[in-house]
Backbone:
DNA sequence: CCGAACACGTGAAAC
DNA sequence: TGTTTCACGTGTTCG
């Protein structure tokens, strides 16, 4: 331990604390023998850096309740938490899509269907009537929280869904236009 | 005030707060006469609060390069930027998929909807996602007295319809099994 | 020994 | 008025 600064304590702290050694002295040469600390400039620089960082952080956060130092950090904390939550929600939504698509790859065994659909597996009946006419019957249960959205407004319905087809369906992978045509054929008779 | 202290602040000052001003006092035997500022305790409390906030922020940020005050804020800044970027990317991905759902949610004007859907023919959008995955959007209006019957009971839906396909759909007329498979693929994601 | 980082007490200014 | 927030200069510790 160095004892060199003991006398600094005596003369600087005691009388310095009540005397004028404040910021007026910033960098102007005061006539009095102000023993400026060696780390004075360093400390000033450090403070400035810290202040700048805080300001930058403040500019980054959207909702700032108060410009004070503590509240800036608090707002930053809540902002980060909010962002984290948002990211989680979005990844959840994407995960739902992925799992929905992935599930379609699996060949549906009955137990999986039961597990997925509860007591009611989806049922589809397609009966050939005559020529190219087909009779279609669909029974399904809407899953809770599924990505598919079916909304109805005064008789109009909007259905959005993602589907993955078997590789060799029906004879080759239908392109968008073919699927579009096919679904239009069904809807036209709704 | 409780003196629960984080190890950040090494303030060993307890309830003393009278004249035992830590290190100054033990080497500098001034017999008291330290004019304690009125806001001394307040300032201590403020510092502690600020320190706690910084610590909390530090605990929230994942990658901390250094435990120093400035770097904590810097890391928080980069972390926020990263989170923002992630959110943007995820929303972009989702927007690509469910852009149809988004605009549907936004338009709440029912008159516009009914006017638009009432005059518009049924609309089908099929967008290729990846591989064999397809994103399907259907907008249609149920015709009055049409043959198709859609009943809903406790979340279960029964749809019956007859459809006739174009002669050359997609490459040849799909048989009942193929149609059944295809519709199951869609319904499973409902 | 030097530089970086920090807590501290204090005066002043802001609310 | 008083309470709160801030910047400042300082001593001290650590690498």
Residues:
């Amino acid at each position: 331990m160095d004892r060199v600064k003991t006398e600094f304590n005596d003369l600087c702290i005691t009388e310095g604390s009540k005397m004028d050694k404040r910021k007026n002295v910033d960098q102007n040469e005061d006539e009095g023998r102000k023993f400026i600390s060696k780390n004075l400039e360093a400390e000033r620089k450090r403070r400035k850096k810290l202040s700048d960082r805080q300001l930058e952080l403040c500019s980054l956060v959207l909702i700032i309740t108060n410009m004070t130092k503590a509240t800036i950090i608090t707002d930053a904390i809540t902002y980060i938490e909010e962002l984290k939550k948002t990211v989680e929600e979005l990844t959840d939504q994407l995960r739902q899509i992925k799992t929905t698509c992935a599930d379609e790859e699996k060949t549906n065994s009955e137990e999986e269907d039961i597990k997925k659909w509860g007591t009611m597996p989806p049922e589809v009946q397609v009966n050939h009537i005559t020529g190219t006419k087909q009779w279609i019957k669909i029974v399904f249960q809407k899953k809770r929280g599924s990505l598919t959205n079916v909304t109805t407004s005064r008789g109009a319905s909007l259905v959005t869904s993602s589907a993955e087809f078997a590789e060799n369906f029906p004879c080759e992978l239908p392109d968008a236009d073919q699927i579009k045509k096919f679904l239009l054929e069904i809807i036209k008779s709704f």
Q: What stands out?
A: The radius of gyration of chain B is 34 Å. Chain B touches chain A through 101 residues (CB under 8 Å). Residues 8-11, 21-22, 24, 34-37, 39-40, 43-44, 47, 51, 68-70 of chain B lie near DNA strand C (CB under 10 Å from a C1').
